């Protein structure tokens, strides 16, 4: 007598405790909002004052003889403006989908995560396209980008040997540009933003491994961001880890890191305020009900579509404030 087959003993059904979805739930991947200091604003657009750098770095003080007046100096003030654009993404959950969904689906939660992820990813790409790129910053030795080369014999005012070459000198390159930027602006960059390929090259570079091994007691086998920050005398090292699919819908996927193989030194104050310079500020219009970090989530009914709409939105402007407080290392690795 034949035995029952496996297919007749069990009818396949989706698991209720496991599914696979490529949501970038790890918010540390979305790091662009921490490169420029965040500033909450009550209006979508407004102005702020800018004090003339040259006037503040010049001294008109003179020796003063008895009975004479003190030398008189002054400084100029201009203004600049910001404008927070709205980024938004929505997803509809229809009544038939909700009624037919198995218990392992949390349709509202999934829609919230999908929309939030989309907004954060769009912001990340906006920052990288606008400011993590060439021809934007003037704080370097030669007032132009530092460009990596796979053949350069030594660092110059505009070029350096790429850091994935064991003969390169990333410590000297970065520290040299820290000094160059400070000598021109009076402010020393305190933050290094890099793509994942550059981070890996710095982690494995023999000069960095030797320096940390010999100066940090009990240093771990793996070089982390905090150790790199300490080595370069920085407050923070930021790694832009977000990935994006650049293909249109239904086309073959083309997934890669949003950030390229570059590095950016910036001066970022810990507390933005009056008379406080910065390479850039991230203006967020919280007056529209948007949280200072993340996105506002709305849920409302679309009766004509027999659906509930889940929508994420934020209002933000990644605004460059001082080009001379940034140094860009283009093509830092090959």
Throw out a few tags for this protein:
6-stranded mixed β-sheet; single chain; 5-stranded mixed β-sheet; 8 helices; 25% helix; disordered N terminus; alpha/beta; 334 residues; phage-related protein like fold; globular
Distance between the termini: 68 Å
Number of helices: 8
Question: How do the helices and strands follow one another from N- to C-terminus?
Answer: HEEHEEHHEEHEHHHEEEEEEEE
Specify the helix fraction band: 10-25%
CATH class category: Alpha Beta
What integer is the average pLDDT?
88
* Portion in beta strands: 25-35%
| Domains, number | 1
Q: Please state the overall shape, judged from the principal axes of the Cα atoms.
A: globular
> Rg from C-alpha positions?
26 Å
Uncertain ranges: 3-25
Written account of the structure:
The strands form 4 sheets. Strands 6-5-15-11-7-8 form a 6-stranded mixed β-sheet. Strands 1, 4, 12, 13 and 14 form a 5-stranded mixed β-sheet that branches. The chain has a two-stranded antiparallel ribbon with strand order 2-3. It has one domain: Alpha-Beta Complex (phage-related protein like fold). The chain is built from 8 helices and 15 strands. By secondary structure, the chain is of the alpha/beta class. The protein is 25% helix and 26% strand.
Please render the helix and strand layout as text:
Layout: H1 6-9, E1 37-41, E2 45-51, H2 53-57, E3 77-83, E4 85-94, H3 95-100, H4 107-131, E5 146-149, E6 159-161, H5 170-185, E7 191-194, H6 196-204, H7 206-215, H8 225-231, E8 236-239, E9 243-245, E10 255-257, E11 263-266, E12 280-285, E13 296-302, E14 307-320, E15 326-330
Parallel strand pairs: 1-12, 5-6, 5-15, 7-8
Antiparallel strand pairs: 2-3, 4-14, 7-11, 9-10, 11-15, 12-14, 13-14
């Amino acid at each position: 007598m034949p035995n029952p087959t496996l297919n007749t003993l069990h009818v396949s059904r989706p698991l209720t405790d496991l599914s696979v979805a490529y949501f970038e739930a790890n918010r540390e991947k979305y790091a662009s909002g921490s490169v420029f200091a965040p500033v909450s604003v009550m209006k979508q657009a407004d102005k702020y004052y800018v004090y003339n750098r040259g006037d503040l770095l010049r001294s008109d003080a003179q020796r003063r003889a008895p009975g004479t007046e003190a030398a008189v100096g002054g400084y100029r003030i201009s203004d600049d403006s910001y404008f927070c654009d709205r980024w938004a993404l929505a997803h509809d959950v229809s009544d038939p989908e909700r009624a037919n969904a198995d218990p392992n689906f949390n349709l509202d939660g999934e829609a919230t995560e999908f929309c939030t992820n989309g907004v954060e990813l769009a912001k990340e790409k906006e920052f990288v396209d606008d400011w993590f790129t060439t021809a934007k910053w003037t704080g370097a030795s030669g007032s132009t980008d530092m460009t990596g080369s796979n053949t350069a014999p030594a660092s110059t005012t505009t070029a350096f040997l790429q850091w994935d070459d064991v003969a390169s000198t990333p410590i000297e390159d970065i520290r040299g540009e820290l000094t160059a930027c400070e000598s021109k602006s009076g402010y020393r960059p305190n933050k290094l933003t890099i793509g994942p390929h550059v981070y890996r090259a710095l982690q494995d570079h023999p000069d960095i491994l030797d320096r940390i091994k010999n100066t940090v007691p009990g240093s771990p086998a793996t070089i982390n961001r905090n150790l790199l920050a300490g080595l370069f005398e920085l407050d923070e090292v930021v790694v832009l880890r977000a990935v994006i699919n650049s293909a249109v819908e239904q086309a073959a996927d083309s997934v890669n890191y949003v950030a390229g193989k570059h590095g950016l030194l910036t001066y970022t104050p810990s507390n933005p305020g009056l008379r406080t310079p910065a390479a850039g500020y991230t203006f967020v219009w919280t007056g529209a009900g948007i949280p200072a970090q993340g996105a506002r989530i709305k849920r409302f009914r679309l009766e004509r579509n027999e659906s509930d709409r889940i929508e994420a939105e934020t209002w933000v402007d990644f605004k460059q404030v001082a080009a001379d407080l940034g140094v860009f290392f283009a093509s830092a690795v090959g």
